[in-house]
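Can anyone check this?
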Amino acid sequence: MTIEHAMDIADAPDDDAAAEVPTEPAPTRRPRRTLRVDPTHPISSGFLITIGVLLALAIGAAVVSVAGVLVSLVLALFIALGLDPAVRWLERRRMPRGWAIALVLIAFLAVAGVVLGVVVPRVIAEVIALSQSIPDVMRDLTQTAWFQTATSTLGTDAETVATAISGFLSDPANLLALSGGLLNAASGIIGGLSSTIVVLALTIYFLASLEAMKHTFYRFAPAYVRPTVRSLTETMTESMGGFVMTMVILGALNSSVVFVTFLLLGLPYPLLLGFVAFLVTLVPVVGSVLFWVIGTTFALFSDPVAALVFALVYLAYMQIESYVLTPRLMGRTIAVPGILVLVGALLGAALAGLLGALVAVPVTACITLIVRELALPRQDLVTVRPE
């Protein structure tokens, strides 16, 4: 045996020693324990069902009890999102975000102060004057030829119709309930001073910490999907902010057109109708059409010719708004099919009035974006029928 051969034998691994090396067992996944309803144990199953129902009722009662707080939070968040595009615009002009937020808030408070201090008191005065003058207006209305012709054609008595309408409109509560309770909702928001202060404070907080809130939200998503979550969130917040700002601008334009038209035609209560137009036209798609009916009907009680002129003028403005103003102002918002906007606005208005209609449309847009960017591409990847 040579020396090299002896060294190779010494360096060779020992099979018995290798066999004695312990190996770590493969990790096993711990089975997940879930609560299930077992038909063979009716008592325990009934207990679990009862606990689930009671928990759902408790959660529902808690949500109802804090509904006012939730409304304030949602309203403040939407105002902050609506002001954020102006802050971003100032930031692009190299203004620090803190100074941009302060400047935007000062402008917002100035506009809100003018509305609350000048416009709202005059609108309330016109509402009171309208409720007091309704009997005289209805008496003059029954003397017009077109009203007598219309009532005789329908087979009703003009005096009976006038008395019923006068009795309904003479009540300020009924007058505030017109247009689906929009004026009532607005008076409730304006009358709640404490709620206004809370909403203002929350708006300032949301606007100042919006970027930090979004970055904290990103941390809850796994790292591999954070770019997708960040892209979708930025798109949704930018679109919602643009939508809120656009609807406020369109509402202000509608209000100005109605106020000036009523003033030039000599129709009564132009400021009141302009305020109603602002509230109603905040609802997209159906708002302008709804106020076209409301404004024309209101003008018809004073002067049929002026009502016809107003109907034509406002109809022309609606075409300009639909084909010129809305496409330009909503260029950066999410494109949503008109039927979805209409259904969302109607459902939101039925659930929470004006605020629900405003919230439902951008929420519908966000759901549409998620479906288009996540759900549909995932379905496009499925090319084999699952067994």
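Reply from J.R.: I decoded it. The chain has one domain: 67-376.
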